[in-house]
């Protein structure tokens, strides 16, 4: 070795002999990452090379010598297996699936934007949950036949690799990826030159990017890459790292993702002849500038024959845009200085689009907002007619968090719905569990919504499988532990102990996630003596496997990792609690199935959804979690345990103390005894702690496993999630988008003109007074009440508004609850903008009753009455 580092690496692709040339196609379509038969085929070609090339089919093909390839091509068995795999892929790619049974309302194409995509460890373009979710979204869309196109960035180094220093401080390294060795295809013009996306930057600079395509089953994923010769050095570095740098660098990434992403879609449609997207879905705010690019297109006479005004273009773009918010943690939201946005848009980035309007989209012009800041989530909400959070509780939290954008509205009426996240089952179910299901019940069990067949599997078989999964994890963890210690400077001679770290028969608890403070990695260390006692319990020991990366700039997170690792370094406990560096998809796939219990203890309600617990559940692990995210809606008392949350009034330290104590208590009195339960009762003392499972099985534990699989399996599946997105968001957005475009944007123009008329006139709208008649002194159920509202609409007309009575129960403070509403229909014109609206209200509930009157603007092209953020109440 010279010590000199290559500045660029490239890979020469192998020419695969004709008889088995389909291997290249099989290696290039990422379906292999979740399709076990394809993986098995590659593995069988050369098991050693398969491991050596880190289970990456393309790398393995490149590593096979010409002679080896020739030998495979001469083997009739290999040739026929390759042909069978190819035909399975071809069928998968074009047969009708669920989506093809939907009607004509279903969009012809949906574009899905995300800053990260976690599909396989071979393509490390993700940092955590957001990216894994995006990957699972694409995979389930593919399985369901949803015509989706993913759009993202190709980071040269992806996210960092994590290791530890001797004193347990996180070390980051950024190995460069070579696109040519990845399962990617460069998008080219007809003349063979690479297709190029260009984005004008300030100071007459231009940002160019290539477009790589990854095939995720049926779903193409377009990844923009700024590392091209035409760029200056700074522009080349735009896609250097995932979430690298801050300020300008980050903003340029997001401009490329959003605006460049739309341009890439246009280029892709032109070159492949595929349908243009009818719906644009942005996974978090990072890609929000896609809305600006679409407005720009609609305002540009070179693109749109009769260009639209700002207001019209905005209305048209919003109609077909869906925004998903992913975090209730303010630090998780991108915010830029307003001046920076102004600087970038002052030039040729979006000619014709008023910069003041762009700035207004991201303005925090509500209580507690910062006037100097441009907020990407706020822009995302204003650019999308439909928005959602990612779990029921997160929907509630988001409606509160963003309620400033809908002043005057009750939080429950803020137009943000929720679609609970899910996980792609074929990716995350362990092959051994999948094999068992297939052998017993046929393949469809785990693909379908009925998992109750698990009740037909004997306790013995379930328990034996759990032990195999736990053992596989123990083996993998030992190897990783040894390699981590070697990187920390230990010599082999000092590491014999790692071969017996962990025990395949001890209750195994997993905890792995990114390490922002709210996830409280070190909550378990709150009372170290108590934790130690749990780990070393003579009859009910537990062992804990922990992993997680801290953001490179987050020293508080790194300190938490250090504290934890230093605890695990103690020779007294190091065989029972370990930290594994470099959490990634590859580790996760062994970790989730191998753990008996999956622990999650975030600060409620800061975990938007969380998906690792779902991945554990579909492998028969039980969750032990704070009632946050998905667990808040899916915990049912039989599928795991809920860690109680301290009163939010408690201070931070006090909260941690209370919740940690509750966690220890649960482990000690519920979880561990149940895991070892029956055995300890019958064989205490005799069997001892080292072999707690000889003989009897923990029947209650196994019944919890079966219950978990049967009930959570279908509920946490990403197929359920994607189907919900299609039905509740994509279809309505496509319909609204078509209506907006019809007859040369007739409805759009009408809506924009109406909005421009209603907005300024709204300040005059008010309820003058309300009276009611018809009830006696002691109102009874079944009587009706005539409600009359005298309102002043100023310049507006009764057709512009929806006047309704909102009624329900009242408490001592006169607050309405359990409200319902009824429109006041009958109208009398009193002149000068004054009208009387009335209706009869049937009293159908007993108890304290109250009502109020509200006025909302109404128009057929609005998706929600709260959309304009205008309301007037009595
Ligand atoms: C599932 C997963 C995550 C996200 O887990 P959360 O529970 O949402 O924190 C992060 N990283 C990897 C590798 C995963 O597999």
Automatic annotation (TrEMBL):
<dbReference type="GO" id="GO:0030170">
    <property type="term" value="F:pyridoxal phosphate binding"/>
</dbReference>
<feature type="modified residue" description="N6-(pyridoxal phosphate)lysine">
    <location>
        <position position="615"/>
    </location>
</feature>
<dbReference type="GO" id="GO:0005975">
    <property type="term" value="P:carbohydrate metabolic process"/>
</dbReference>
<dbReference type="InterPro" id="IPR000811">
    <property type="entry name" value="Glyco_trans_35"/>
</dbReference>
<dbReference type="InterPro" id="IPR011834">
    <property type="entry name" value="Agluc_phsphrylas"/>
</dbReference>
<dbReference type="InterPro" id="IPR024517">
    <property type="entry name" value="Glycogen_phosphorylase_DUF3417"/>
</dbReference>
<dbReference type="Pfam" id="PF11897">
    <property type="entry name" value="DUF3417"/>
</dbReference>
<feature type="domain" description="DUF3417">
    <location>
        <begin position="16"/>
        <end position="123"/>
    </location>
</feature>
<dbReference type="InterPro" id="IPR052182">
    <property type="entry name" value="Glycogen/Maltodextrin_Phosph"/>
</dbReference>
<dbReference type="GO" id="GO:0008184">
    <property type="term" value="F:glycogen phosphorylase activity"/>
</dbReference>
<protein>
    <submittedName>
        <fullName>DUF3417 domain-containing protein</fullName>
    </submittedName>
</protein>
<keyword id="KW-0663">Pyridoxal phosphate</keyword>
<dbReference type="Pfam" id="PF00343">
    <property type="entry name" value="Phosphorylase"/>
</dbReference>
<comment type="similarity">
    <text>Belongs to the glycogen phosphorylase family.</text>
</comment>
<keyword id="KW-0021">Allosteric enzyme</keyword>
């Amino acid at each position: 070795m010279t010590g000199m580092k290559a500045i660029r690496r490239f890979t020469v692709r192998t020419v695969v002999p004709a008889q088995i040339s389909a291997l290249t196609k099989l290696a290039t379509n990422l379906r292999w990452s979740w399709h076990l038969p394809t993986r098995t085929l590659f593995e069988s070609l050369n098991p050693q090379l398969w491991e050596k090339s880190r289970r990456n089919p393309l790398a393995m093909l490149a590593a096979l010598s010409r002679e080896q390839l020739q030998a495979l091509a001469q083997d009739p068995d290999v040739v026929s297996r390759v042909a069978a795999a190819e035909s399975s892929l071809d069928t998968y790619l074009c047969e009708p699936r669920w989506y093809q049974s939907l009607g004509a309302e279903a969009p012809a194409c949906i574009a899905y934007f995300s800053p990260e995509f976690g599909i396989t460890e071979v393509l490390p373009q993700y940092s955590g949950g957001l990216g894994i979710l995006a990957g699972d979204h694409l995979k389930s869309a593919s399985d369901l036949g949803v015509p989706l196109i993913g759009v993202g960035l190709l980071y040269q180094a992806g996210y960092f690799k994590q290791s530890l220093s001797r004193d347990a401080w996180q070390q980051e390294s950024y190995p460069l990826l070579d696109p040519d060795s990845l399962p990617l295809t460069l998008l080219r013009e007809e003349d063979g030159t690479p297709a190029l996306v260009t984005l004008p930057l300030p100071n007459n600079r231009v940002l160019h990017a290539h477009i790589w395509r990854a095939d995720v089953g049926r779903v193409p994923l377009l990844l923009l890459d700024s590392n091209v010769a035409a760029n200056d050095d700074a522009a080349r570095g735009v896609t250097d790292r995932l979430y690298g740098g801050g300020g300008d660098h980050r903003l340029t990434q997001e401009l490329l993702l959003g605006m460049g992403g739309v341009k890439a879609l246009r280029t892709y449609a032109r070159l492949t002849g595929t349908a243009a997207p009818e719906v644009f879905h942005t996974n978090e705010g990072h890609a929000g500038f896609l809305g600006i690019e679409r407005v720009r297109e609609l305002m540009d006479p070179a693109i749109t024959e009769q260009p639209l005004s700002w207001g019209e273009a905005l209305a048209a773009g919003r109609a077909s845009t869906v925004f998903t918010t992913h975090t209730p943690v303010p630090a998780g939201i991108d915010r830029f200085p307003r001046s920076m946005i102004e600087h970038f848009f002052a030039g040729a980035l979006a000619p014709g689009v008023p910069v003041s309007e762009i700035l207004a989209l991201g303005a925090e012009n509500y209580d507690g907002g910062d006037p100097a800041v441009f907020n990407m989530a706020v822009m995302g909400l204003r650019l999308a007619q439909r928005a959602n959070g990612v779990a029921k509780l997160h929907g509630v939290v988001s409606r509160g968090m963003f309620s400033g954008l809908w002043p005057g509205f009750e939080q429950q009426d803020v137009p943000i719905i929720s679609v609970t996240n899910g996980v792609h089952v074929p990716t995350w179910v362990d092959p051994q569990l999948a094999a068992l299901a297939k052998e017993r019940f046929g393949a469809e069990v785990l693909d379908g919504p009925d998992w109750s067949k698990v009740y037909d599997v004997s306790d013995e078989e379930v328990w034996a499988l759990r032990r195999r999964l736990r053992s596989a994890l123990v083996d993998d963890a030992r190897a990783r532990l040894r390699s981590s210690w070697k990187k920390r400077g230990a010599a082999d001679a000092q590491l014999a102990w790692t071969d017996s770290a962990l025990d395949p028969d001890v209750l195994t608890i997993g905890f792995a996630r990114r390490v922002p403070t709210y996830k409280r990695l070190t909550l378990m260390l709150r009372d170290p003596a108590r934790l130690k006692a749990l780990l070393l319990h003579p009859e009910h020991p537990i062992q804990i496997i922990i992993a997680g990366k801290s953001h490179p700039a987050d020293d508080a997170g790194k300190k938490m990792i250090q504290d934890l690792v230093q605890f695990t370094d103690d020779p007294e406990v190091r065989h029972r609690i370990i930290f594994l560096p470099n959490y990634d998809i590859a580790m996760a796939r062994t970790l989730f199935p191998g753990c008996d219990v999956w622990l999650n203890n975030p600060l409620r309600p800061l975990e938007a959804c969380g998906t690792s617990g779902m991945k554990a559940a579909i492998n028969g692990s039980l969750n032990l979690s704070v009632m946050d995210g998905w667990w808040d809606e899916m915990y049912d008392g039989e599928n795991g345990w809920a860690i109680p949350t301290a009163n939010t009034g408690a201070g931070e330290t006090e909260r941690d103390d209370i919740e940690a104590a509750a966690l220890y208590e649960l482990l000690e009195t519920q979880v561990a005894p149940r895991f070892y339960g029956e055995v300890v009762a019958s064989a205490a003392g005799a069997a001892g702690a080292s072999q707690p499972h000889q003989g009897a099985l923990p029947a209650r534990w196994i019944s919890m496993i079966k219950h978990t699989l049967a009930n959570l399996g279908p509920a946490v599946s990403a197929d359920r999630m994607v189907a919900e997105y299609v039905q509740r968001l994509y279809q309505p957005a496509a319909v609204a988008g078509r209506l907006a475009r019809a007859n040369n944007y007739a409805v759009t123009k009408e809506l924009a003109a109406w909005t421009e008329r209603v907005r300024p006139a709204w300040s005059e709208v008010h309820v003058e007074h309300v009276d009611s008649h018809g009830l006696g002194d002691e109102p009874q159920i079944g009587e009706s009440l005539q409600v009359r509202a005298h309102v002043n609409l100023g310049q507006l007309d009764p057709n512009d508004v929806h006047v309704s009575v909102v009624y329900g129960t009242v408490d001592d403070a006169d607050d309405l609850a359990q409200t319902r509403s009824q429109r006041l229909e009958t109208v009398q014109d009193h002149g000068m903008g004054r009208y009387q609206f009335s209706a009869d209200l049937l009293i159908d509930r007993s108890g304290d009753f109250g009502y109020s009157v509200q006025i909302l603007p109404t128009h057929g092209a609005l998706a929600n009455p709260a959309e304009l953020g205008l309301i007037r109440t009595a």
